Amino acid sequence: MGFPKFWARSSTTEVPAVDVNPSNSDVSVIHDGNLTFTVEKAENGSKPSYQEAAGAPVEAKSPLGYHVGWITVIFLNVNQMIGTGIFSTPGTILNSTGSVGLALIYWSIGFLLAIAGFSVYLELSSYFPNRSGSEVVYLEQEYPRPKHFFPVSFAVFSVLLSFSSSNSIVLARYVYQIAGTTPTDWQLKGVAIAGYSVATLFVVAHNKYSLWLTNLLGFVKIVTLIFISITGLVILGGNVPHIPDPGANFRNAFEGTTTNGNDLAVALVNIVFSYTGFANAFNVVNEIKNPIPTLKRNGATSILTVGLLYMLCNIAYFSAVPKAEFARSKETAAGVFFVTVFGRGRAEKALNVLVLLSAFANLLAVVIGHSRVIREIGRQGVLPFTKFWVSTKPFGTPAAPYFLLWVVTFIMIVAPPAGDAFQFVVSLATYPNGIFHLLLTSGVYIVRYRRKRLGLPRPEFRAWDVVLIFYILLQVYIIATPWIPPKGGPYAGSVSFWYATYCVVGIAIIILCALYYVVWMYLLPRWGGYKVRPEILSVDGQGAVTHRLVKVPLNEVERWDEEHDEAGHLRRRRHDNETNSSQGDGKDQEPKVI
What we know:
The chain is mostly helical and 594 residues long. It has helices at 70-81, 85-88, 90-97, 100-127, 135-142, 149-161, 165-179, 185-205, 207-236, 261-275, 291-320, 323-327, 333-342, 346-379, 386-390, 399-414, 421-454, 465-480, 501-528, 557-563, and strands spanning 28-32, 35-40, 49-52, 530-539, 544-553, 574-575, 578-579. Strand 6 and strand 7 (578-579) form a beta hairpin.
């Protein structure tokens, strides 16, 4: 079937964008060259979205409910940003940058990066305010051709790298620090698995109450960082007798600054890790009432709060701990601070308990956000057993994505060498993310161009071009600089094996994604004598709606295309000389699957 130009009008399948005001159940279709856009509205109070038909359909009523209020928006972001990063990576960043001054500058760059990234995500969510899953949705809509390429690629990437092993390992370290014992490698891994398992059980059992628990622990986390910040100010005021010179690290603050590109790249990777989570609330957009105003106000509040506390906590660390000792602290930077200030006693254990709760809250926030990503991938139809991934039975939660996340995290805790697990896993997840974020940010201009062609109004939020360019350049830096070898040679990096292993593995994962797509979308259909087509499927009767990609035999493709529109809705027939608009009838239609 041919596709008319975007300004042409068909009497049955197209409507001009300016005239579209669909109800919750209506779906209008707009053609623009070889692209087809559906215009849909959801019950979360957002404006209609205009999305390419190859993407997953909008769920008019969220099957996960609308339990994400303004407080939860703040703490979903806060809990993922303030997890183990501020307690574990400041020592690594100081060791990589070589000086206190440059370390503080890098923390400031991280804040700017989070603000820029948040602006990018907010603009994209303004275009698609009734879809959860953030990157899954945005890449799908920015790059709809070749069909299903980015959904398939991001699905493989997400399934392989949606783990929280590094955070679980740090949680386990603090458990043993509280107990006052030194664990073996397998004891550490066992506790890490147990901690992640408990977090998973909470979020599987109840959606609303798990969000409430996340909010409560997030409050405890903020109080902990405020306490550390105030302690630092007390130290700087000269009120702690056993720290006689709290300003020592701030004199000649740039002494020892490194010029090695690899060290600087490692520092930025750790900064990115510490601010990861600024966009976590975008994973639950369709569970937020009036999502764009709510995200704009409270998402920004979360970043400003975290950025201020990060700087104050770093200043507190540097005021108490000698530079050389702090640079060696690695994953237990906050523990070194507690021992220096309070000694080895009850105060140290109490604060370590607070850090432990912070790490656990981070696991909750991460698994909640990642589960929506996996579920949205399932709704795109690119995973086998579509209903399994999309269903919210039996507890009204995405249990199948939670199970997948647990399995992948279990493997990534057990498999890597214990000594290098933290740094390698953090770096491995960051490198492919840099590639996808580069494409995601660049794609904002593509979406703007398409919307301008269609004559659509400006979104509720539009990022400044200078912010987009800054974020793009940061992603280029993250991708390019890790290839610079460390000063001591290829085996003198932050891990015991070759310094760029995580880069190679990250690229290999991207290549694996592309190969999977070629086999799945081209080779298998050619060998099997069929074409892949989407259909709309209702699941569970709780509002869950999904694409299911089905195999249509070549001799039935023409009839299938006549009976379904590009999004997979069954076309409505003409009855009594009245023409209904093209949309699904809300009933499951079983195709002939081979």
